[in-house]
Amino acid sequence: MSFFDFSASKTRHYHHGRLRVEGGIIPEAITAYRTYGDPNNPCIVYPTCYGARLDSQETFIGPDKIFNPEKYYIVTFALFSNGESSSPSNTPAPYNGPYFPNVSYQDNIHAQYTVLQHLGVQKIHTVVGFSMGGQQAYHWAVMYPDYVERYIVICGSARTSDHNKCFIEGPKAALVASRDFENGHYKTQPQHGLRAFGRVYCGWAYGQAWFREKHYLMGGEYPDLENFMRGQWEAGQLLWDANDLVTLFHTWETGDVSVIRDGDNLEKCLSSITARGLIMPSKTDLYFPPEDCETEVSYMPNTAKLVVIPSVWGHMAGNGRNLPDRQFMHEEIMKFFEETSKSEK
């Protein structure tokens, strides 16, 4: 087994200065990122998803993992509002907390492009992402067609569907309606709201069969469902800033590549993508269902490939924590790289 020194891949911060975004201005905008490997190798861009920080990306990075830093130059980006890049929780007044402006996917991609130019990246071999990361991959392919050669969307979509928006409003409402959220002006993190947020979200994260088969016991880690919801989902959300979560939801909820160009015509927008795409929904995903992905891929018959992850883990199949799902994705991504490399020759 090969060894890679992850300690050398520390979080860096690119300072944009005054940055105009969808909802106004971030006076001193910062993009947090990490790099892995030799800058002379082909570049893989790997942005974060909802509820993820940069260290979580290392699930897929390593000599024996999907993205090998001995073969690729890997750049991971933190979304605005994830607590590492500029966010409600780390921006000083007067743009702190609930005063932080809304940020779009386009704002994130433009900022990431600026960082890549700073790093001297001439071309992106592949943009890959899970969930919100996958939506960013779609945006990259539309916004910078001459810069992106491939993109991989894992449990994501080009446009956030109406049903997906309805799902988002559930945990968001549980958070903002809590007695301790105080319209975002809380002095300490709203524990009641964050706990409720986690419980509402939990029921959407996995497929129904996952619960039926009692995977929430996690091999004996939890004795029952109640302890799983508290230990995994309440505890997980308590690590986050509430305003960060709300602002991230706005980015997700308004995701739609067709607003960038083509006047809200999704078919026209997607059919114009020239990069090669691998679209990988989970069979049991409740809010990025494979049916939505099938429709989007049908608009790109010559450039995109649909491969459904056969998993009961729902949306969470795409984060790679379940070994069989991770192995399946690894195999399909390697096939995709091989197929697209052959077609370029």
Automatic annotation (TrEMBL):
Q: Which GO terms describe its molecular function?
A: acyltransferase activity, transferring groups other than amino-acyl groups
Q: Which residues form the active site?
A: 131 (nucleophile), 285, 315
Instruction: List the InterPro entries.
Output: AB_hydrolase_1, AB_hydrolase_fold, HAT_MetX-like
- All copies of the AB hydrolase-1 domain together span 71-165
SUPFAM superfamilies, alphabetized? alpha/beta-Hydrolases (SSF53474)
Q: Which Pfam families match?
A: Abhydrolase_1
**Origin, by domain of life?**
Eukaryota
NCBIfam families reported for this sequence:
PRK07581.1 (NF005757)
Database matches in PANTHER family: HOMOSERINE ACETYLTRANSFERASE FAMILY PROTEIN (AFU_ORTHOLOGUE AFUA_1G15350) (PTHR32268:SF15), HOMOSERINE O-ACETYLTRANSFERASE (PTHR32268)
Q: Give the family this protein belongs to, as stated in its UniProt record.
A: Belongs to the AB hydrolase superfamily. MetX family.
Q: What is this protein called?
A: AB hydrolase-1 domain-containing protein
Q: What is the lineage of its organism?
A: Eukaryota, Fungi, Dikarya, Basidiomycota, Agaricomycotina
